[in-house]
Design goal:
The protein is mainly alpha-helical. It contains 21 helices and four strands. Its cofactor is Mg(2+).
Length: 743
């Protein structure tokens, strides 16, 4: 029975994909509205596919070249294999497919949400959230199926067939090859997120500045040439990019836990691989309980809270995952202090592992709550930006930057507490399993996140189709909540990145054969500073790319208003395709430089200066990137909802201010500044952090200072008197641990 337990993981992934297909079919069967609505939705769908085809064409060459290099490098060291290239390609393909799944359903659900909004807010929420859940369940299902299947294959290939040690070099090789899957996923995620972010913000800024500010028409007005590109951008950036992003994050988190699980000696009923297998099982169960949670996201009246419905589904999935994790951990892990992590100073029990999972889920929930506070309408931070908008554009910018900087305090304290608490509970493995626990409900988190862009598109279609006012009011309610959930999702992602990066960092240290990162050394300290700089130059490149692409878009929109007579009088149609083409070409061109930095920086530093300096680089990237990501995501989200608040009217110093007022124009400027923060640079930080760590993990065997199998590593530490068994290890298990050491 226990030996068959490993096959449960891919089965759960398949079940998830079947449910995804059922939900997708339901969305497709819904009414898509009249001919005008369907025509507009067709423009959006074709534009989104045009972008994906252009992006995939470029990424195809990258995947082929990188795969060849990886395959060749895998033959150079003992603890790797050329098969890592195949693993890399599979990860890249599934990551791209995850993005496509989300975009495909989003471009179907948007117009159907618009039509549903004609009926009621409840029906509009049902259609948009079901569309989002298709993406969430699909992404998590692909990750669980891919990771589970490949682990079974590599475990049998490198460990079982050779009779290798599950704590030694054989398992290290299996996981090193599996790391290629994560590298492929994160690489595609970075390019998809950056490219999609540049696309969507170039179109958004062009639609805002020329349409709303200069021409005085709504950004979603059918006369605005950039409006189709703007709605396409919601799909390629906030849906396809986000899908690839969280697919990569999900996979990286599971991988980090598995790599550290190899270093735990466990006498269990699973052949000693229970600590390695556990993160996969938790991920599979989290997928199932996320599906259950989606059933509770519904409202019954026009005045019901959409945010409360989403929170209800989220908390149900979290609570069920916690309960299931307890029973799984009690079943899989052995009794007593049978687990010995690297360093020899920490022995822990399965209750400690469960405690770490709970801590991870609590950290994720708190991060979402804190982010919601800093970005939601009606809360103090957004209200402070609204108030400062009354005195002009500059004070609005100052207010947004201040809110973004302030918003780093509580998340960092929560993260620090989570890291320390999970380490006390189960050592470095506890930190990794906490991240796995946090990401277990990714399907639910992504469903909540993805429904926002669908609702945004639905509102755009309603505006362009000239539907009744109450339709747009309903989609605006969903869109406003979507802005908050999107910010919360990005906060969740950056928190998972911090925990996962620390786990990957710990795994890297073990594989690289070093015991610590000594910042008293000048070269290591230099690496730390260079690492801290990388998120800044990365952000600079991404934001500057948005600026250049937006200038092209602004010039094109102005040209069409100038050269095509009759646009403003509805007598001529704008050339939407020209704007779509500008965003596509700019995003593909501009995504290369930021991606190259993330991939090449750890390789250059690692081979030029050694593993310890590379460790310093990773530490700098992690700390700086987490802070930068939180700041940019929250500042951008707060600016956006400050602008949206004017659409219903806000009171400033006893006077009501509405859309079109000077204060509203100042808020539009703030939102324009915040757009590349929250949709291009900020969300890319978590991928940057994890991608550099995964690259370091893969090159670790090539730059390692000593052999890194668990057995040989323990011997090296024993010889240097750096390892002592803790006194707390129970007498009943002492002989087993001593026997393992003597081997």
């Amino acid at each position: 029975m226990e030996q068959m337990f490993i096959y449960l993981v891919p089965v759960l992934g398949i079940v998830g994909l079947i449910i995804m297909a059922i939900k997708s079919a339901w969305v497709t069967k819904q009414d898509a509205g009249d001919a005008t609505m369907q025509e507009l939705a067709g423009h959006i769908a074709r534009g989104a596919m045009a972008f994906l085809r252009a992006e995939w064409k470029v990424l195809f060459y990258f995947v082929v070249i990188a795969g060849i290099v990886l395959g060749w490098s895998g033959t150079l060291v003992e603890n790797s294999s050329w098969i890592i290239a195949i693993s890399f390609v599979i990860g890249a393909v599934l990551s791209a497919f995850a993005g496509y799944l989300g975009m495909n359903i989003a471009t179907k659900a948007n117009v159907r949400t618009t039509e549903a909004a004609r009926t009621s807010l409840a029906q509009a929420l049902k259609v948009s959230f079901t569309g989002g859940s298709v993406m969430g369940i699909g992404v998590a299902g692909l990750a669980v199926l891919g990771m589970g299947s490949l682990f079974i294959l590599f475990y049998n290939m490198f460990v079982v067939s050779t009779g290798g040690d599950v704590n030694g070099d054989a398992m290290a090789t299996a996981l090193e090859v599996l790391a290629g899957f994560s590298l492929g996923a994160e690489s595609i995620a970075l390019f998809a997120r950056v490219g999609g972010g540049i696309y969507t913000k170039a179109a958004d800024v062009g639609a805002d500045l020329v349409g709303k500010v200069e021409a005085g028409i709504p950004e979603d007005d059918v006369r605005n040439p950039a409006t189709i590109a703007d709605n396409v951008g919601d799909n390629v950036g906030d849906v396809a990019g986000m899908g690839a992003d969280l697919f990569g994050s999900y996979v990286a988190t599971i991988l980090a836990s598995m790599v550290l699980g190899r270093e735990i000696v466990s006498v269990d009923n699973f052949g000693g691989i229970a600590p390695v297998l556990l993160p996969l099982i938790i991920a599979g169960l989290g997928l199932m309980f996320s599906i259950i949670g989606t059933l509770f996201v519904k409202i019954s009246s026009e005045t019901a809270s959409v945010q409360s419905a989403l929170n209800r589904g989220n908390w149900i999935s979290i609570i069920l995952t916690v309960a299931a994790s307890y029973f799984v951990i009690m079943y899989m892990l052995p009794e007593g202090d049978l687990m010995l992590s690297r360093g020899g100073s920490i022995a822990f029990t399965k209750m400690g592992v469960f405690g770490a999972v709970v801590i991870g889920l609590i950290v994720g929930a708190l991060m979402s709550i804190i982010t919601e506070y800093y970005t939601a309408m009606g809360k103090r931070p957004v209200n402070s930006i609204i108030k400062q908008s009354s005195t002009g554009h500059a004070t609005n910018i100052i207010g947004g930057i201040s809110v973004g900087m302030e918003s780093t305090v509580l998340p960092i304290l929560v993260l620090a507490g989570g890291i320390y608490g999970s380490f006390l509970a189960a050592g470095l493995y506890g930190v990794a399993i906490a991240a796995a626990g946090m990401m277990a409900t990714t399907a639910m988190q992504l469903a909540i996140d993805a429904f926002g862009p669908i609702a945004d598109n639905a509102g755009g279609i309603a505006e362009m189709s000239g539907l009744p006012k109450e339709v747009r009011e309903r989609t605006d309610i969903l869109d406003a909540v979507g802005n908050t959930t999107a910010a919360a999702g990005k906060g969740f992602a950056i928190a998972s990145a911090a925990l996962t990066a620390l786990a990957l960092f710990a795994a890297y240290v073990g594989l690289a054969g070093i015991n610590s990162i000594d910042i008293y050394k000048a070269d290591v300290l230099s690496g730390l500073f260079v690492g801290a700089m990388i998120p800044f130059i990365f952000s600079s490149l991404a934001i500057a790319a948005v600026g250049r692409a937006a200038m092209d878009m602004v010039n094109e929109v102005r040209r069409q208003f100038r050269e095509i007579p009759g646009i403003m009088e509805y007598k001529a149609k704008p050339e939407y395709e020209k704007c779509v083409e500008i965003s596509t070409q700019a995003s593909i061109r501009e995504m290369v430089a930021p991606g190259a930095i993330a991939l090449l920086a750890p390789i250059i530093v690692g081979f030029a200066f050694g593993p310890e300096v590379l460790g310093g680089l990773l530490a700098g990237i992690t700390v700086s990137g987490v802070l930068m990501g939180i700041f940019q995501n929250n500042a951008g989200g707060a600016w956006d909802n400050a602008k949206k608040s004017f659409e219903k009217g806000v009171e400033i110093d006893g006077k009501m201010e509405f859309k079109g007022s000077e204060a509203h124009k100042a808020s539009v400027t703030g939102d324009t500044v915040g757009d590349p923060f929250k949709d291009t640079s900020g969300p890319s930080m978590n991928i940057l952090i994890k991608l550099t760590s995964i690259v370091a993990l893969i090159i670790a065997p090539h730059i390692s200072e000593v052999p890194h199998g668990t057995v040989s590593h323990l011997k090296n530490l024993e010889d240097s008197k750096e390892i002592t068994l803790v006194e707390e290890i129970s007498e009943s298990n002492l002989e087993e641990v001593e026997s393992l050491k003597m081997q």
